[in-house]
Each structure stands twice: as structure tokens, then as C-alpha cells.
Design goal:
Blueprint (H helix, E strand, L loop, with lengths): L1 H11 L2 H19 L4 H9 L8 H18 L1 H6 L11 H10 L3 H34 L4 H17 L5 H15 L2 E2 L6 E2 L13 H19 L14 H10 L1 H16 L5 H15 L11 H24 L5 H12 L6 H5 L2 H24 L1 H7 L4 H20 L2 H19 L5 H24 L7 H31 L1
Antiparallel strand pairs: 1-2
Helix pairs in contact: 1-17, 2-3, 2-4, 2-17, 3-4, 3-10, 3-15, 4-14, 4-15, 4-17, 6-7, 6-14, 7-11, 7-12, 7-14, 7-17, 8-9, 8-21, 8-22, 9-21, 10-19, 10-20, 10-21, 12-13, 12-14, 13-14, 13-22, 14-15, 15-21, 19-20
């Protein structure tokens, strides 16, 4: 294991791969600091361009972005009081009051430093999980793999927040869209309507682009003007770093909590920051949380980056995407000829370990880049949304067409994009749809293989039963944790 890790580090440090990692870091920072975009939209923008790419280069690009999105989204949260993504909501509680006191740079310094440390701890958690998970998942056959896909699909309800029924319906809609084209187990075509274009199914990059990015474009067009014409930064970045060093135990506790929450599929960004904020508020002395307490920035920022490493554990080792971002990452693996799960640990262990190294290095490099580029980045976050739309439209259309070089992809992008916009109007969650789409074929394939090989006896398999119990526990336990997070959020307000 150690020898493989050293070999993977040498691979990651290759200049060409480092270049793509830095490119992903830069894009991740920009995506994070633009309010309303977030990692899911950013990842979907990259997906069409990694088709057939060298796995090490492709993963350097994707993980570089994943690692720093929650570093970049700190800027709008602190400067403007607007969350760059769902994972930076709690940061506003004390970050924005600090900015109004003229201590924005101090808050940014603390947030960036803690994000870096949290991300490194998340990477260590991912590395530590590999040797323990390998013996278990390499023994999995089709029944266990089918139950893992069911576990992933069951997360649709958790990803829906307070509307699990809408999440379940969204996941079923994703399954329906994913079943378009040739069936994996029988020789028939479904829902093609005699269009040759649909015979091979819908393209994952196009669906991901449409369902997440298209609604954002419409929102940007309808929200006129810039978010703010203020947000000047003053000195004090190093003071924020010192704050982090003085609260090292709070950073560690919050990062461990973030890794554990990230490991639970379906929770993730919208929960981790509030739970860390609430835990910090209960454990520190003489707190003034909500009034500009620097520890109210340190706790959530340490947790939200650590969560990324934790969320990669079920994604890479079990093939269970627990969020929209990890669902897109799973799709990226497929586009590069890789399959998450047992094969990642047996046939592609160097790729898996390279992801760990990239996650750690990207967090360090990303935080340092943000510290150096604080002032120009702050100016970018103030660009009016309507000025970004023309650039994004061109980028999205090129990305959609580049997937298969077919005009049908443009039509699919528009149709699925309109569906995504309607879902936002109806307050239906979109990540469950993508999870259903990604897992549709795998679920059907493993189901039929299990039936053909074992009949119905596989249902009594102990691991199958254990996974079924886990599904029930996660669904009920996740609901409890979300209610706790909601109470913490209300108390913080």
C-alpha cells in the first residue's frame, strides 16, 4: 500500500498532470466565488472535455476543482453575505459581520487556512479507509453490487432536504431518462421513438450540463445588476491564519466531523457546515457566535472541505454517489474507462491513490492561491450576472456538442435544461435525478445477473441483508440529523 502510494505521488507530480490540476484549482476557485454556481455546475462544465482523457490527467482536473470549490465560495460568503454554495451558508453568520467591522481580510485568512487543513484531513481519511474497505468490497458479487446501487438510489430522498417524496420522484425520473436506448440485459430499444440518435441512450455530460447549468443561466438573466458595489479588503490575512493556529483543536474536531458526515451518502454540503457550526458553538468558551466571532468562521470552513474527502470514500470504494458533485465525478470515471468500486482497488489502485494525493495537494495549492489572489478574486465576485451569461452560453453549447459531435445533443441540452428549470420552479431537487440517471444501467444489469445466477436466493445473502438494513438506518438517521441541523440553523439566526 505504501509503495503504491509513493508511486502514485510520482505520477501526480508529473509536470503535465500538475498543470491540469492547477487548471482545475483555478476553475474551482472561480466557480466557488461566483454565487449560485457551486461545484456541481463547475464539474458538469468540465465533464464533456475529459472524454477519453488519460485517467491521471482527467482526475487531476476534476479533483483539483472539487478540492477548492468550498475554498473559493468563502469570498462571496464573507464579502457579500451571500453563500457561494450550500456548504458555505454557516460561514455567513460570523464572516459577514467581521467584514462589516472592517476585518474581512482576517476572516478570509482564517477561512482559507482552515479550509486547507480540513481538506488535508479529509484526504488522510480517504487514504486510511482504503485498506479497511478493500477486503470487504473485493468479495462483492452481483447481488451485493445491486444493493450498493440501491443504496445510492435511496439517497435521493435525503438529497431532497425536507421533501423526501420529491427527491424520490426526481430519482425515479432519472431512472426513466437513464433507461432510454438499448437495454443492458435484453435485445430491445426503449423510448427511442424511432430516432437513431436515442438508440445509444442520452449522453451523461449533456444531461449533467443541462440539468444544473441551464437553470443558472436563466436565474442570472432575471437577476439584474451586480450583487454589490462594496466589499473592499483590508490587511489582516496573516492575523486570520494566527487565529486558526490558536484554535487548532477546533479545526481538528470540525474536520473529523466533516469527514464522517461526508462518508454518509446523501448528507454532504447542506448539513455539514451547520452541524460543525453548532458543535463549535456548544464546545468553545465565551463565544459570541453570530456577532463576528472568528471561531464561527473556523468551525464550518474546517468541516466543509474535509467533507469532500469523506464523500469520496463511498463514491470511489463502493460506487455510491452521495451528492450531485460525486455523481458527476462517478460519470467522469466512466467517461475515462474506469469503474468505481472493487475494480478501482484491484485494477486501478494507482489511480485511486493519485486521487488522494491530488486532493491533499490541491487543497494546499488552492488555499495559497486564494491568499495571494484575494484582491482580484474579490473583484471577479462582483461582476454582474448578465455579463457572464453570454460567455457561459457559448461554453455550455460547445461542451454539449463536443460530447458526441451530434446536433441531437444540443436539442437534448435544451429539453433537459428546460426540465431542470421547471424543477427549480417547482422546488424539486435536481441531484437525485442525476444519481438515478447515472445508476440506471448498473442497477438493471446487476439485478438481471443476480436473478440469472442465483434465482431469488441472493436475497438471503448476509451482506445483502446488512446493506438493506444500512439503507433503512441511513434514511431514518439522515432525517434526524437534518432536523438537528435545521434547529441549529434557526438558533444561529
Amino acid at each position: 500500500m505504501l509503495e503504491s502510494a509513493v508511486s502514485a505521488l510520482h505520477i501526480v507530480l508529473d509536470p503535465s498532470r500538475m498543470l491540469f490540476m492547477v487548471l482545475g484549482i483555478g476553475l474551482g476557485i472561480v466557480v466557488g466565488l461566483l454565487p449560485g454556481l457551486g461545484g456541481t455546475v463547475g464539474m458538469s462544465l468540465l465533464l464533456p472535455f475529459i472524454f477519453g482523457m488519460d485517467p491521471y490527467i482527467g482526475m487531476a482536473l476534476l479533483i483539483g476543482m472539487v478540492a477548492v470549490v468550498h475554498t473559493g465560495d468563502t469570498f462571496p460568503s464573507v464579502l457579500l453575505g451571500i453563500p457561494g454554495s450550500s456548504g458555505s451558508q454557516a460561514t455567513i453568520m460570523d464572516g459577514y459581520p467581521l467584514a462589516k467591522k472592517g476585518q474581512a481580510a482576517r476572516a478570509m485568512g482564517a477561512a482559507l487556512f482552515c479550509s486547507m487543513i480540513g481538506g488535508v484531513i479529509g484526504g488522510i481519511a480517504l487514504y486510511a479507509a482504503i485498506p479497511f474497505a478493500t477486503p470487504l468490497i473485493t468479495s462483492f458479487s452481483s447481488p451485493e453490487l445491486f444493493m450498493l446501487t440501491m443504496l445510492g438510489l435511496s439517497m435521493a430522498g435525503l438529497l431532497a432536504g425536507n421533501s423526501p417524496a420529491k427527491g424520490a420522484m426526481s430519482g425515479l425520473l432519472g431512472l426513466l431518462i437513464g433507461s432510454v436506448g438499448s437495454a443492458p440485459a435484453i435485445t430491445e430499444y426503449r423510448y427511442t421513438f424511432d430516432f437513431l440518435y436515442l438508440s445509444n441512450g442520452l449522453s451523461l455530460p449533456v444531461v449533467a450540463l443541462a440539468i444544473f447549468a441551464f437553470p443558472i443561466l436563466i436565474t442570472m438573466l432575471t437577476d439584474k445588476g451586480s450583487v454589490s458595489d462594496t466589499g473592499k479588503l483590508q490587511g489582516g490575512v496573516l492575523e486570520g491564519v494566527k487565529d486558526g493556529l490558536r484554535n487548532k483543536f477546533l479545526i481538528f474536531r470540525s474536520a473529523v466531523l466533516g469527514s464522517l458526515i461526508g462518508f454518509i451518502p446523501g448528507l454532504g454540503g447542506s448539513v455539514v457546515d451547520w452541524l460543525a457550526y453548532g458543535a463549535g458553538k456548544k464546545t468553545v468558551k465565551n463565544n459570541n457566535f453570530g456577532e463576528g466571532d472568528i471561531r464561527g468562521v473556523i468551525a464550518p470552513e474546517s468541516a466543509n472541505n474535509a467533507k469532500e474527502g469523506g464523500s469520496l470514500i463511498p463514491t470511489l470504494l463502493f460506487g455510491i454517489p452521495g451528492s450531485g458533485t460525486t455523481a458527476i465525478l462517478l460519470g467522469g470515471l466512466i467517461l475515462m474507462g474506469l469503474e468505481a468500486g472493487p475494480r478501482m482497488l484491484t485494477n486501478d489502485l494507482p489511480v485511486t491513490l493519485s486521487i488522494v494525493w491530488t486532493l491533499v495537494i490541491a487543497n494546499i495549492v488552492g488555499a495559497l492561491m486564494c491568499m495571494v489572489l484575494i484582491r482580484p478574486i474579490a473583484k471577479i465576485s462582483l461582476i454582474p450576472g448578465e455579463k457572464l451569461v453570454p460567455f457561459l452560453v457559448i461554453l455550455l453549447l460547445i461542451g454539449a456538442y463536443q460530447s458526441n459531435f451530434a446536433w441531437g445533443d444540443i436539442v437534448t441540452f435544451l429539453v433537459i435544461g428546460l426540465l431542470g428549470y421547471v424543477m427549480t420552479i417547482l422546488d424539486w431537487p435536481r441531484p437525485p435525478l442525476l444519481i438515478g440517471f447515472v445508476l440506471a444501467i448498473s442497477a438493471e444489469r446487476y439485478y438481471w445477473i443476480s436473478i440469472e445466477r442465483y434465482g431469488w436466493e441472493w436475497i438471503s445473502n448476509p451482506i445483502v441483508i446488512a446493506l438493506a438494513v444500512l439503507i433503512v438506518v441511513l434514511l431514518t438517521g439522515g432525517s434526524v440529523m437534518k432536523r438537528i441541523s435545521g434547529r441549529i440553523q434557526k438558533e444561529g439566526v
